[in-house]
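# nightly structure sweep
# worker-07 picked up a monomer target from the shared queue
# config: single-sequence mode, recycle default, output format = structure tokens
# input follows
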Amino acid sequence: MVSKRIIPCLDIKNGRTVKGVNFVDLQDAGDPVELADRYSKEGADELVFLDITATKEKRKTLVQLVEKVARKVNIPFTVGGGISSVEDVNMLLRAGADKVSINSSAVKNPKLISELANKFGSQCIVLAVDAKLINGQWKVFLVGGRVETDLDLFEWIEEGVRLGAGEILFTSMDHDGTKNGFANETLKKISDLVKVPVIASGGAGTIQHFSDTFVKGKADAALAASVFHYKEIEIKDLKKELYQQGINIRL
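# output follows
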């Protein structure tokens, strides 16, 4: 059985790690290079780096910062933000990324998923999906949660996997930063729908929330930010408790 994964997330704005609630009210959370170094040493299974304003500012991901982070980590490293071409991915992989995360660009040009998967392999392509419950239906949002679309969450994820995405990173905007737990019912539905790994994002506040998303949400990995940045939960303690609960986790 494949181990469940714990993934700290570095949301980057102006070269700094930031964290907000429901995608707004961003607060400084520290230096991304120092945090990456810490998480690599503390036993994180992977690291995600999202340049959250790259698409809005119509620019590419901060490659030099990616290089600095990559030099500090010895765990798989996913980078996202402003990626819209094979050249962008080539540049980030050369800078030290192991995987790339695409979001807005994939919705605007779904063929990009297939193009990147064919060039780099599906295992390298993470489809990030930010969604919110609108009048009882999960709708996909773009540009760091700023732009609502008519896309249904489940239909888009199914399409993305069909086109070649090797992993899904689902963030519930309603749960983001609330520390009230992950969107487990929705995560279970996604996990039942596709055969690729699903990463839960949005809502981590306690160790039990991680346990619940693995058991009830059937998530393959759980991503969190502020609880790790501010040391509200230590990764080693989290993993030890999950292991004691019988969850397959790498200690």
